Amino acid sequence: xxxxxxxxxxxxxxxxxxxxxxxxxxxxxxxxxxxxxxxxxxxxxxxxxxxxxxxxxxxxxxxxxxxxxxxxxxxxxxxxxxxxxxxxxxxxxxxxxxxxxxxxxxxxxxxxxxxxxxxxxxxxxxxxxxxxxxxxxxxxxxxxxxxxxxxxxxxxxxxxxxxxxxxxxxxxxxxxxxxxxxxxxxxxxxxxxxxxxxxxxxxxxxxxxxxxxxxxxxxxxxxxxxxxxxxxxxxxxxxxxxxxxxxxxxxxxxxxxxxxxxxxxxxxxxxxxxxxxxxxxxxxxxxxxxxxxxxxxxxxxxxxxxxxxxxxxxxxxxxxxxxxxxxxxxxxxxxxxxxxxxxxxxxxxxxxxxxxxxxxxxxxxxxxxxxxxxxxxxxxxxxxxxxxxxxxxxxxxxxxxxxxxxxxxxxxxxxxxxxxxxxxxxxxxxxxxxxxxxxxxxxxxxxxxxxxxxxxxxxxxxxxxxx
Length: 467
Hints:
This protein is α+β, with helices and mostly antiparallel strands. Helices cover about 35% and strands about 15% of the residues. It has helices spanning about 15-25, 30-45, 55-65, 70-80, 100-110, 115-125, 135-155, 170-180, 205-210, 215-225, 260-265, 280-285, 290-295, 425-430, 435-440, 440-450, and strands at about 55, 95, 245, 275-280, 300-310, 315-320, 325-330, 335-340, 345, 355-360, 370-375, 375-385, 390, 410-420. The strands form two sheets. Strands 3, 4, 5, 6, 7, 8, 9, 10, 11, 12, 13 and 14 form a twelve-stranded mixed beta sheet that branches. A hairpin with a 4-residue loop joins strand 5 and strand 6 (about 315-320). The longest helix is centred in the first third of the chain and has 21 residues, at about 135-155. The relative contact order is 0.09.
């Protein structure tokens, strides 16, 4: 999103509409202002229900059609109508003037945090009296729902169609709660759930919230750009929603819908956000630890996601390629996360360097995939005896300060997937010329015992020895 604040004043030959818009403090560049003016002209085309030079709520709903939920269209309209105009159009009643329309969009898309916060407050207010956290929660849930709605309507989910073709209310509530968790009240305390819903939120609280939670402004910009079809080129959705890449011909339903994907994607490096590549899934590759190892090693950074038998969804971000070896690996960019029942990330504490662990076929060391904590007491552990794991944290994991992620400390699961992030690095492709069977004798022995042959044997070039 363009964050420039300069004001380019038109020359004396500029038309009256542009001059008027610039006088009320538009932050749009001339070509952007022209597009805003064109949209206003479409909305204010008099069909008998609007005063000249204004438009009504019905006109806005007619323009948006099914692209946004009606409740969000009404919030947008109320935010515009509540802008104090320097001069009121005659007979406008509750209609929106060009000045109000321009100022609202200018402040929401390009304004300072004070201006954005002030504009958001206008959208939250529903009646006389103070705004409470309950009002902000309702607005936030409607905003999150509207983002998914408009991306679905515009066919811009980039492969993340979600389970049952819609995003679950649980995901909406979890995302909204995560956004609200950074809101501070006047007494300095943060939002901590239902017990805070009656707390008053004044203008300063909303401004601080918008400042500390960039997703509020980003989601509103998506609603404007995609819902109103305005300045579409100025928002890049590739960093918001990654392209989902699954091998062709493989029907696949992910554990994740688009909201957890958006949440996790925001915690990744920029070069990892544009594409997620499915490396492993129990749905496609079966309940096999050997299969897991063969698909995720030497693939660069990735996300491990599990859903336990109680419906809790959680996992970890591996910042480096997984390798099968009896030592800890990774670095302090790794983190653990929870998706259901709540969205949260847990990062490096500095206590130890037990970031990642992947071992198989050893008799003296634990065999499985682990992140954080220590042997036999991991923050996240998937046993080589596949389908079992644990998340131990009393009170929290030493490496990541994470609580117990699963419903039960020792959990069972049958759903797991691993996503490679960004593009496949050339170094990863070179390393993957070696079969997992070369580095995992146990897997080779299992294959031979089953009576199956190594079809790749004799077809691969002899790998060079590592220095």
